[in-house]
Amino acid sequence: MHNKIKYKHPQATLLHATPLSIGEVAARICYNSFSLATEPTIRNFKKNLSVDDINSSDLLNKLTWTHHHESINEHINLSYYIKDISREVVLEWNRHRIGMATSQQSSRYTMEPIINSWIDYDNQDISWNDFVNEVAKYVIDNTDFMIEEDAMYIHGKLTRYNIEQPLIKNLTGSKKKKQNDRVKRCLPETWMLEGIWTFNLRALKHFYDLRSSGAAYYGIRKVVDTIIQATPDKYLSLIRKETK
């Protein structure tokens, strides 16, 4: 009986969030309704031209869930650092992105460890297990037999590229980029990336609505889960109805 295949899960950390008060100020400018604000920092905005953060906003909740005036929420941005996310998930995610900025790890600049490890193994400076252990650092697979499959795939690809033109360790500058560009197709879809993703709150609500569905790809549902776990309740109340 085969062991169950297991995967590492993506992990999100919230780095920065626009104060909720900015969204309420934007809404009250539309209606010229600062005198109705319950929070002094909002009520006195035009006098001070600054606002402190607030923990909730009845106005934003009403506009979002009753009147569906969600454009106000585009003034609120949340930036996340996300790691342990696979290439195949990132490809799908970026293809469907709306209102989201992304800066992710580039294979053009970050392939040296696996190339160096392959060269060391080819030169018999390290063992096969050492090479597999190096591959394990960079793939989402979390079972030994699947990690070894990844290692064999990468090893086979790099072997063919080396036959075409010998691989060289520790290149820098344009030579490194040229070599990495030549061989980066050796990376499997299970290769892990990390990056910064920034959403405006309206876009994050859209992402949650679509990608938390049972019909969505399970890998991207895991991304939704970790983002939601990293998001404070005061923003979640404008993203999903169950926290409203």
Which SSEs are present, and which pair or pack?
Layout: E1 11-17, H1 20-31, H2 40-43, H3 45-48, H4 58-65, E2 77-86, H5 87-95, E3 100-104, H6 107-110, H7 112-122, H8 128-136, H9 144-164, H10 173-183, E4 192-200, H11 201-211, H12 218-229, H13 233-236
Antiparallel strand pairs: 1-2, 2-4, 3-4
Helix pairs in contact: 7-8, 8-9
In the CATH hierarchy, what is the architecture of the largest domain at level 2?
2-Layer Sandwich
Helix content: 40-55%
CATH topology of the largest domain: Gyrase A, domain 2
Strand % is 5-15%
Question: Which parts are unreliable, with pLDDT below 50 for 5 consecutive residues or more?
Answer: none
Secondary structure: number of strands: 4
Lateral strand order in the biggest sheet: 1-2-4-3
Global morphology: elongated
Q: Order of SSEs, N→C? A: EHHHHEHEHHHHHEHHH
Structural class designation: alpha+beta
Summarize the structure.
With 244 residues, the protein is α+β, with helices and mostly antiparallel strands. The protein has two domains: 11-105 and 193-243, Gyrase A, domain 2; 112-186, no CATH class.
Structure description:
There is one protein chain. This protein is of the alpha+beta class and 244 residues long. Helix content is 49%, strand content 13%. The chain has helices at residues 20-31, 40-43, 45-48, 58-65, 87-95, 107-110, 112-122, 128-136, 144-164, 173-183, 201-211, 218-229, 233-236, and strands at residues 11-17, 77-86, 100-104, 192-200. A four-stranded antiparallel sheet has the order 1-2-4-3. It is elongated and about 75 Å long. The mean pLDDT is 94.
